[in-house]
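Input chain follows. Return structure tokens only.
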Amino acid sequence: MFEIIRKTLRTGSQTINYPQEPDEAPPGFRGKPELFQSRCTCCGECVSVCPPSVIWLKEENGEKTLTISYCGCIFCGRCEEVCPHGAIKLTQEYELASKTKDDLLARIGWRS
């Protein structure tokens, strides 16, 4: 038993001090999709290619709303690939813990 303790003390700590020092995601990591209202034309291309169908476009009373739910998002990146105007970009953000599902919705909207 003392031999195990001695070896452990010699090697030191191999973990990071998370969450005080969060680890950065590697290059190419597909994290949370971010919506840019200034670039979005409400074409619906992202809605049609989303495998889990967590992006939807809604029109009500002359107002269009594009919503993405991070609850079911599989971070595949298809929405980013098909957007002709670059209105969706995958970020490096991976910490998406929340107390409510409403906190995991991103919405952008327009008035006609």
